[in-house]
Amino acid sequence: MDFSRKFKGVSLRIIVALLLCLFIGIVAAYIFATVKFSVKVEEPLSVVAYPSSLELFPNMTQSFNVTVNDAASVNYLVVLDFSLNDTVFQESYVTFSDGAYTIVPGLNTLTANITISPDAPPAQVELTVGLDRTSVAQPSYDFTFFWGPNVQRFVNGTLAMKLNFTLTDERLFITAKINKTSYDVGESLGIVFDNEFDGFRVGDQGYILTPDNGSYSGVETRLGKDWFLGLMAARLPHPSPYHYCTHDNQTGYTFYVNFPRSVVPVKTQVGQAVRVHVDLFYIVEVEFAIEDPYKE
Fold it and tell me: What pTM was computed for the model?
């Protein structure tokens, strides 16, 4: 009997068995070391405060505040979505402000307007406010301009205008904050677009936006300082399709402007930019270009 071959076969089987046990042990260890758990990505924005009720009369516009909390660490561009539980009444007699807001981490107080038409009948309806988080608020541009008492007559001391421009692939949002604490319905914010990127001149498209939420559209009729849309301006439907304005006796005016991209001229061969001229109360004015990354 050849014992060497027998033990050699036994040894081979033992080695194979040991290797197989080792492999099973490694796989088992890997399996037992693997765990599963759920991952939930939550909505970062929530409405945390709003009016309990509003009481209005026909032909009345009222402002109200909505407080939004941003639990994330980034800014968002938000549009408020208003809906009544009576859609026929809303479509016939109610208009809400149409604006966008830049939301920063933490609490944000947003001011909106509701307007009741003069022929509205008595009604008891329920308002739902939703948040449309359209995009992260980029690109966003902030500018602050100052005029001393020697060049303006609107405030005692320094007149300040803070501008924020937020550009999306669908809209140009402008927020203008002006520290004039006295209210005058005859004042306005003017915006002109440089249609051909050849300097602001007669024929460029412009808009006059008033504190009572009226607006005018026309073309520039003068060159140089103190441009005015003048006789060629046409009054747009009220309330304005492009803005709404609030006024506070402590902080002054805030204009929320919302232009669709269809009315914003772009010349991609000139730095991919939008050139804007802003005129405040027909006296003080600024102009500049903002980059447009959405155009090829």
Answer: 0.61
